[in-house]
Amino acid sequence: MSDDANMTEAKMPDEGTSEAPASSALPQEELDRLTDDIIAALKSVYDPEIPVDIYELGLIYKVDVSDDRDVLIDMTLTAPGCPVAGTMPEMVADAVRSVDGVGDVKVNMTFDPPWDPSRMSDEARVALNMY
Asked: In the sheet that 60-66 helps form, which strands lie side by side, from edge to edge?
């Protein structure tokens, strides 16, 4: 989670951490709505080479929503040399910016830890016949 005490981590597909989110000045109902809407926006973004959205692929590592409704996203790609490496962060930022009530959006690319197929959801595995 971010060092910024004003950030609240949104729920992600593989919540394996016991770290509790920082308290937020946003009402829980508003944070839940923003989280659901941000996840829906992330699910609208697809890697052009894979017929599964980036959220279900497990490419989103973290989403932080600040008290000012600014959003910070840590994400990766299936491979560092992915052809959409230059455009994917802006595609993700544009999708999240479309969410009503979201302020500024920043997307950080990381390859640590490297993505692997174990990060995919069951939905993604079924879509890719990897079950």
From this structure: 7-9, 60-66, 71-75, 105-109
Cα–Cα distance list, 69 to 31, 57, 79, 102, 114 (Å): 9, 25, 30, 5, 28
Indicate the SS3 state at residue 120: coil
Strands (E), the chain: 7-9, 60-66, 71-75, 105-109
Give CA–CA dist 15/71, Å, rounded: 18
Q: What does the block give as tokens for 47? A: 């890697």
Per-residue confidence (pLDDT) for residue 29, from 0 to 100: 94
Domain 7-11+25-127 CATH assignment equals 3.30.300.130: yes
Record the tokens describing residue 89, joined without a space. 């962060």
Q: Domain boundaries in the chain?
A: 7-11+25-127
Q: Work out the average pLDDT over 18-42.
A: 83
Radius of gyration (C-alpha) of the chain in whole angstroms: 14
In DSSP terms, 108 is beta-bridged to: 74
Query: For the whole model, what pTM was predicted?
Result: 0.81
